[in-house]
From TrEMBL:
Domain of life: Bacteria
InterPro entries registered for this protein in UniProt: Acetyltransf_17, Acetyltransferase_Eis, Acyl_CoA_acyltransferase, Eis_dom, GNAT_dom, SCP2_sterol-bd_dom_sf
Residues in N-acetyltransferase domain copies: 3-151
Protein name as catalogued: Acetyltransferase
Length: 393
């Protein structure tokens, strides 16, 4: 048996598509193949596969993406398309590809990695951890927010990177874990997944302050994306959606977990569902900590003992010196020290630094260890921000 890990190119396009269609149970119509080939060629993505005896057995893709943490932009490797033919499953091939991808992401300076898991437990074993949830509202038409007058105008537009991305990007910097979307992302990912109508709210000064992308079918209104930068924009967009009351029975929308629409309704007893969504992993702990935007405060040093059995470069003790302005300098240290450290797995550290969980919460459940005063010290330096990803890959 011969086994080889390869960087896949367009020469292997047919192999990749065949496995993807089987694994994810979809079919690309012949008329769409050229479009798919173009997207594969144009997207900044490294695709890796393991060939056994000349046949593609397993594959994954590493998308070159960027995300915001504390309004700071980080290079991120998005893992997608992880798939294996059934006859090659449970032979450790995916584990090999994941280890390989960690090495490649580190080489490219991608300090973070996100993925959408088929099994949270499976990817936890390799150091990924849930970093964001999605809240879904299903609202009967009788429970929609009351329509209210507003200044400004709402205009129906074509999806446009130039018009929509400045609004989106301003919002993305306000949460942790949203993507910095490229032109290609809008053209290929948003356009294909978020179809329907696009409307923009302009305030009385003519400034674009929000937009909604939505679709109506079978008397249901599906909001694919609603971004508002001001309370005026939020009210205007919801009033606009309420104008569809005669043609729908219900509305569905996915929002960040801190969204408080229900509280603002006259009848807040709407259907709400919260579920884990994407997972995050710190690829290079030292590099990530050196760039991390800690809260301002007194100058201090924290010791982190990090356990990472799948990325040896992260495994060990690090001194993190945090300056008064929140900038940090992290470096690996060796030898014993009398100072108490905080002991954490790489997954729990990702949950903390993305803002998904607070350090004292994880201490309570034994997911990190250390003196409570040290953990509280770390907690004071972690900004409180909502995690949200209004995308999928």
């Amino acid at each position: 048996m011969t086994k080889e890990t390869r960087l896949l190119t367009m020469d292997q396009f047919d192999d990749m598509i065949e496995l993807s269609q089987f694994a994810f149970q979809y079919e690309i119509p012949a008329v769409k193949l050229a479009e798919s080939r173009e997207r594969f060629e144009r997207e900044e993505t490294d695709r890796w596969g393991i060939y056994i005896d000349g046949k593609l057995a397993a594959q994954l893709a590493i998308l070159d993406l960027f995300t915001y943490i504390g309004d700071k932009r980080f290079a991120m490797g998005g893992i997608a398309g992880v798939s294996t033919w059934p006859e090659f499953r449970r032979q450790g091939l995916v584990a090999e590809l994941l280890h390989h991808s960690l090495e490649k992401m580190k080489e490219k300076g991608q300090t973070l990695s996100f993925l959408h898991p088929f099994s949270i437990g499976f990817y936890r074993k390799f150091g990924w951890e849930v970093y964001t949830d999605l809240k879904t509202y299903r609202i009967d038409v009788s429970q929609l927010p009351a329509r209210t007058p507003y200044n400004g105008t709402i205009k129906r537009v074509e999806q446009s990177y130039e018009l929509l991305n400045p609004i989106y990007n301003t919002y993305a910097k306000q949460v942790n874990g949203a993507l910095d979307r490229s032109v290609a992302w809008w053209n290929y990912r948003i356009a294909s997944r978020k179809k329907g109508q696009t409307c923009v709210f302009f305030d009385s000064a003519g400034e674009a302050q929000g937009y909604v992308i939505y679709e109506v079918k079978n008397r249901e209104l599906f909001v694919h994306e609603l971004i508002d930068l001001t309370e005026e924009a939020r009210r205007a967009l919801w009033s606009f959606l309420g104008q569809h009351d005669s043609m729908i029975d219900r509305l569905e929308i996915k929002v960040a977990t801190d969204d408080c629409l229900a509280y603002l309704l006259n009848n807040p007893r709407i259907k709400q569902e919260i579920e884990p969504y994407f997972m995050a992993r710190i690829v290079d702990a030292e590099a990530f900590l050196n760039e991390y935007p800690f809260e301002a405060g007194k100058e201090e040093t924290l010791l982190l003992d990090i356990q990472d059995e799948h990325a040896a470069w992260n495994n060990g003790r690090f001194a993190v010196r945090i300056a008064a302005d929140g900038t940090a300098n992290a470096e690996r240290i060796s030898g014993e020290t009398n100072k108490e450290s905080i002991r954490t797995g790489i997954g729990s550290l990702a949950a903390v630094l993305t803002g998904y969980k607070r350090p004292t919460e994880l201490l309570r459940y034994g997911l990190i260890q250390g003196d409570s005063r040290q953990v509280e010290q770390l907690e004071r330096r972690i900004p409180v921000r909502t995690t949200f990803l209004p995308d999928f890959f």
